[in-house]
Amino acid sequence: MADDLAPSLLLAMPQLEDPNFHRSVVLLCEHGPNGALGFVVNRPTDTRAAEAVSLDPPVVGDSGMMLWVGGPVEPGRGFLLLGRDPEPEPSQRVASGFYLTASLGVLRHLLQVDRAEIDHTRCRLLLGYAGWGPGQLDSELAMSAWLTAPADPDLVFDTPPADMWEQAIRRLGVDPLALQVAPGIQ
């Protein structure tokens, strides 16, 4: 098994045929002998979170926060990815500038804040996650299905989702058009 790659970004190579991951950027949060877990961070939906989330009591207002596809596993389960620690609420630090929380208090706050505030808040409500069994991601890496890059919160939170994959590839010093669709080391 490759050394623990988490935290890092996985960048889907053109030959990765799974439609769930075409041109995807995945924040890899865990990687080890038991498998790997991450979140696609460049797939927004057209659904507002306030329209889809049901809290008791109901949410008052709508910040405009959108839902994002976090991956194909458990697509009905939500995860909040934040750019800062939501203290005093519980969270898990993934890397510098990346925190995960399941706090309903944080979710409620983000759904109800002023639209101007949400536009300047580094946050994503991700539905589902990407998961790999033991050795599965390592096998995909050996087949050149993914490139790895540093986990960069500026890239994830400040880059338009449609541009994120290409910008991440270019930051590695690679022209995306030069990537070959073939297994093995290129």
Structure report:
Strands 1, 2, 3, 4, 5, 6, 7, 8, 9 and 10 form a ten-stranded mixed β-sheet that branches. This protein has one domain: VC0467-like (3-Layer(aba) Sandwich), CATH 3.40.1740. With 186 residues, it is of the alpha+beta class. It is globular and about 50 Å long. The two termini are 20 Å apart.
Name the descriptors.
6 helices; ten-stranded mixed sheet; VC0467-like; 186 residues; alpha+beta
Tell me the CATH superfamily: VC0467-like
| CATH top level class name | Alpha Beta
Tell me the number of strands. Answer: 10
Element order: H for helix, E for strand: EEEEHEEEEHHEHEHH
CATH topology, which one? VC0467-like
Distance between the termini: 20 Å
Q: Which CATH architecture?
A: 3-Layer(aba) Sandwich
Q: What structural category characterises the helix and strand content?
A: alpha+beta
Overall pLDDT:
92
**Tally of alpha and pi helices:** 6
The amount of helix comes to 10-25%
Radius of gyration: 17 Å
Please indicate the count of domains.
1
What share of the residues does DSSP label as strand, in percent? 25-35%
Largest sheet: 10 strands, mixed
